[in-house]
Amino acid sequence: MSLTIQKVTSYFKDLEKFEELNNEAFPDEERMSIQEMLNLVQSKKIEVSALYDKQQFIGFYVLVIENHIGYILFLAISPEQRSKGYGGKALSLMKKQYPNCQIVLDMETIEDSAPNLQQRILRKQFYLQNGFYETEYLMEYKGLEMEVLCNQKTFQKNEFETLLKNLKIREIPFHLWKK
């Protein structure tokens, strides 16, 4: 496995594959269109990166960096490439690329009534096994309750809240609170 990162622009060669994965990996209420992502890249609010193993498109991630906080908005691996270590390798690359940043992400909370309960449990196990910690914080995004995880034992809550306040995506407010 030789995972590499390529920045995504409007001239990106695999936009069609990117769009297909974006549509497959994220439900409508969470998904951001590629055009929205590219507009935010131009305004320097986010970075969008494609993941490749040699010449093969493996997946992508979308990251916001501000004041030593990196917030993963999206991370997706192509269905045929899942469970091969690419997701963990992508997280490692992000940590190496931003060694002085706390990397934060959110995921659906684990609720017994969730239709995809097993998927949520496996996702959380994946993040914990890849060096992320529970922060004891939840956040709301477009009416969805999400659990916040980070790659350091001490969560930089104030800095993350500042990032959220400055992050203007579709003017959606983000709310953060302790469990």
Report on this model:
- This protein has 179 residues and is α+β, with helices and mostly antiparallel strands.
- The chain has five helices and eight strands, in the order βααβββαβαββαβ.
- The chain has a single domain, classed as Gcn5-related N-acetyltransferase (GNAT) (Aminopeptidase), CATH 3.40.630.30.
- 31% of the residues lie in helices and 34% in strands.
- A hairpin with a 2-residue loop joins strand 6 and strand 7.
- The longest helix has 13 residues.
Provide keyphrases for this structure:
single chain; 179 residues; alpha+beta; Aminopeptidase; eight-stranded mixed sheet; globular
Helix content estimate:
25-40%
Q: Hey, roughly how much beta strand do the residues contain? A: 25-35%
Number of helices: 5
Query: Class in CATH?
Result: Alpha Beta
Order of helices and strands: EHHEEEHEHEEHE
Largest beta-sheet characterization: 8 strands, mixed
Major sheet: order of its strands? 1-2-3-4-5-7-6-8
State the distance separating the first and last CA atoms.
Answer: 38 Å
**Structural domain tally:** 1
Could you name the CATH topology? Aminopeptidase
Protein name: Acyl-CoA acyltransferase
GO molecular function, one term: acyltransferase activity, transferring groups other than amino-acyl groups
InterPro entries: Acyl_CoA_acyltransferase (IPR016181), GNAT_dom (IPR000182)
Pfam family, one: Acetyltransf_1
